[in-house]
Design brief:
- Keywords: Signal.
- This protein has a single domain, classed as Alkaline Phosphatase, subunit A (3-Layer(aba) Sandwich), CATH 3.40.720.
- Helices cover about 35% and strands about 10% of the residues.
- Strands 1, 5, 6, 7, 8, 9, 10, 11 and 12 form a nine-stranded mixed β-sheet that branches. It has a three-stranded antiparallel β-sheet with strand order 2-4-3, covered by helices on one side.
- α10 runs parallel beside α11.
- The two termini are about 35 Å apart.
Length: about 400
Amino acid sequence: MDLLTRRRFLIGSGVAGAAALAAGGSAYALTDLLATAGDRDPDARTLVLVTLYGGNDGLNTVIPYADPAYHDARAEMAYRPEEVKRLDDRLGLNPALGGLHGLWTQHRLAVVRGVGYPKPDRSHFRSMDIWQTAQPDRPGTTGWLGRWLDGAGADPRLAVSFEPALPPLLAGARSAGAAVPVTQRGAGGLRDATLAAFAAPADEPPARARAAACFADLRAVTAMITAVREGTPSPGDGDDGESPATATGGGHSPLEAQLDLVAQCVEAGVSSRVFSVSLGGFDTHADEKQLQAVLLGEFDQALSRFVDRMSRTDAGRRVVVAVYSEFGRRVRANASQGTDHGTASDILLLGTGVRGGLYGEQPSLTDLDDGDLKCTTDFRDVYATLLERVLDADPGPVLGGWRGRLSGVLT
């Protein structure tokens, strides 16, 4: 979904107010963050939240390669045991996740399994709103980290998104985080090179063409945002308020460029305690195996390099990275060698302060809920742990008194 359509939906549905979504945008720049250097407690931890927009397929990310039900349900989409990056004698990582597998061997990667929420919703809009507001039972109007910001001093620079539009995640009742778009400095060339690398000639296979189209979406979103800022109409931005959805979502700059700015801020000792970054394109209804591998390869390179860079400084060793998507995919592959919207999936936690390993119960691939995995870990358990152990905050006021925790995952 493109960013303009997303913004309109959020304002219209009441998930976050127009003023909150507009906060930051063009009002903050990297220099505003760097101006706070030295203003934070040197012992404070930092949370980096990575959103994978589109519904990443958890079963082909953390792969139950030893389960016959996995191979029966996916046939051509399944990875063979010799292909995966093994975690143990039952689970392995996607072959594209070599960097993350290296972090696993260093005990800096935790995999939280079966994460979801009660009465799951398969709509991209609704499910992402639930994850970002942390209110599964009723439509939320504030983000869970926006509510944290309300009680943490309300300075927008405490919670920063390196995206053109502020996600509802960082919108509070009385305050909102800062949106600091990634500029063309260093990012444009990388984006153009990435697009060129995946440009597919007419005789290329459909999967490669789909991967190229996904990255072309990033350029289209960039042009649209520029048009919005300059007050000129963008393609597809008609009077009826409907823009074509790309199902890409996420930041329109490469994840590596976003994480590079996070690293600069952490190393400079800025006051920010939370950073939000994203990667889109995971709505893999067709030709999934190759497309997801392309996306996970970009994700793996960006994230493993970031975690390695963070391990070299005291401030960086206090960074915890959490990775999530709005839902997983259905267990059985569809007729187009893709997967449709599902429910429970994995959350990945990374960093020096993470106790690597497997957490939560592995969902059954045969005891399903209408073809979907049953949730075994509520995402609020993870959020409460991050609030308490990373942001030094009482999770109660933020999560409506939620008492669950994820035991032992953080040092």
